[in-house]
Design a protein that fits this description.
The chain has about 200 residues and is an alpha+beta fold. Helices cover about 25% and strands about 35% of the residues. The strands form three sheets. Strands 4-5-12-7-10 form a five-stranded antiparallel β-sheet, with no helix packed on it. A hairpin with a 2-residue loop joins strand 1 (about 5-10) and strand 2. Helix 4 packs across helix 5 (about 140-155) and helix 5 (about 140-155) packs across helix 6. The longest helix has 14 residues, at about 110-125. It is globular.
């Protein structure tokens, strides 16, 4: 499974590593981790096909996805962590059905124009000109990560950018459709393990 690893200082990621490791490593870590521990493991965007067969069979592609669009499943991924977890603001190139199966997550959504405006403001603040179409590890570490979080998740940031978006709270068994090109940022809340699966389709 793919497990990004975070270290933090005052809530700002100072280290980020991506590694391929057995699922058992994450499960052992999750059984003993405390919320205050600075090192975090998060299985992010790990292909469902990499799961053991017994687990893979528990995550069948929803009929809704199979019948939507052309019925072409672009990718299916699993996301496992221990709260709190955080994915910065980004957009996907394909429609996305995001299903929560353990724990709770909050998703903040912005339409394509609003999200692009926030992204452009962040890039200007950083004196960068990165592509909003392809987001990589830059958004997961250092100043970009913390500025994105402030703009999307703090009252001060939301008021300053005059955001007019949507917020969804996902409980186990609930799903959210994220349209193609819509910007979103995700946080897990509460305690314990959190798990999601998503299907990108065309």
């Amino acid at each position: 499974m793919t497990s990004p690893e975070f270290g933090s200082k005052d809530g700002v990621a100072v280290d980020f590593q991506r590694a391929e490791a057995p699922l058992s490593i994450f499960l052992s870590w999750a059984a003993q981790v405390k919320v205050s521990d600075p090192q975090r493991l998060y299985i992010a965007q790990a292909p469902v096909d990499m799961l053991p067969h017994a687990l893979r069979n528990d995550l069948p592609t929803p009929e809704l996805v199979l019948k939507a669009g052309k019925g072409d499943i672009y990718d299916a991924n699993i996301w496992l962590g221990v709260a709190p977890t955080y994915t910065p603001l980004h957009r996907d190139p394909n429609p996305n059905l995001y299903l929560q199966f353990a724990g709770r997550k909050v998703v903040r959504l912005l339409d394509p124009d609003a999200g692009q405006s926030v992204f452009a403001a962040v890039q200007a603040a950083l004196q960068k000109d990165a592509s909003s179409r392809f987001r990589g590890e830059d958004m997961m570490r250092g100043p970009e990560r913390s500025i994105l979080e402030k703009k999307i998740w703090t009252d001060e940031g939301v008021e300053a950018t005059r955001l007019d978006g949507f917020e969804a709270m996902l409980e186990p068994g609930e799903a959210l459709f994220i349209p193609n090109g819509w910007w979103h940022s995700v946080k897990s809340i509460g305690e314990g393990c959190t798990g999601s699966v998503n299907w990108w389709f065309r």
